[in-house]
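In this section we walk through a basic example: taking a raw amino acid sequence and producing a predicted 3D structure, encoded as discrete structure tokens. The instruction is simple. Fold the sequence below.
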Amino acid sequence: MTLSVRLRHGFGGFALDIAFEAPPGLTVLFGRSGSGKTTVINAVSGLLRPESGRIAVDDTVLLDRAARIDLPVHRRRLGYIFQDARLFPHMSVRQNLGYGRFFAPRAAPGLKPDRVIEMLGIGALLDRRPGALSGGEKSRVAIGRALLARPRILLADEPLAALDEARKAEILPYFERLRDEVQIPILYVSHSATEVARLATTIVALKAGRVERAGPARDLLADPAFTPTGIRDAGAILSARIVAHHPDGLTELDAGGQPLLLPRVAQPEGQVLRIRIAAQDVILSRARPEGLSALNILPGTVAAIRTGEGPGALVSLQTPAGLILARLTRRSLDAMQLAPGTPCHAVMKTVAIAPDAVGPAR
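The resulting token sequence is shown next.
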């Protein structure tokens, strides 16, 4: 299924005018605060009635202002995951999950309760009430309730924003499972570069109520011209397969035929990983360096360079593992005489790749 969205709406000096498609997988609405992300997701859910537009899931039209179609919220078959869990405090986990099932049409396709409970690891929580749950446990139950409504699409409005870093690390793998196992579009609002790199299959970048860029996450994040939340958040995605776990606590990957070492990753050998490499953690060298403490050195060729008015620059390097971004000064760029086509090496410290930047690939 594909979600198609075309909207125009204005209020309070802000004008929204966008169009995009969200295929199966996880589409992130990405951008700074005030760019229109929550307005879009509220219009898709039916909580906001736009001035004009059309929203459809394949052939099912949820909204078409020109044709005077505007399905109420309860008929749109949506699963909505909010920033806070919004569980019913007087109900047990089992009853909260059952509330989602209450609104699901009997003939609608969807996951069975046992499958959802197993996927989210909440079997031991069924008889508890929300007051006895941790923040991460509440989030998992909220995801389960949304799934058991057998939705056409799943909406998530910054669902990790209210969690601390430990709880975010706990919940991210569950969204990865949703992305990979649930065959419906997931529309996910975020302004976190780490969440986008871990989860997104598609990115729709918003700026001042307009779609700035849209496309596959891997392509956009590797483009040095794509910095919707600022150059400090720039980073690209690599895919690599685990080949060995070493006794010294490092995991060795095969990244396009090149070795890549990370702090131990709790995944089996053979698992393909999706890894975000932050541009600020990459050093470039014209010749292959020797005698460094950094263990990861990937050969490549400069693919593109972006410079702005300030002293910094972003360089895109094509390596056997994929495109990597490096952030450096224009002085270094000039001193190294870098230009598209220049052979170069990307140098990355093993410990600079944070655990939350690594997850299973789809």
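Looking at the output, two observations stand out. Residues 52 and 66 are 7 Å apart (CA to CA). The first strand starts at residue 3 and ends at 11. In the next section we compare this with other chains.
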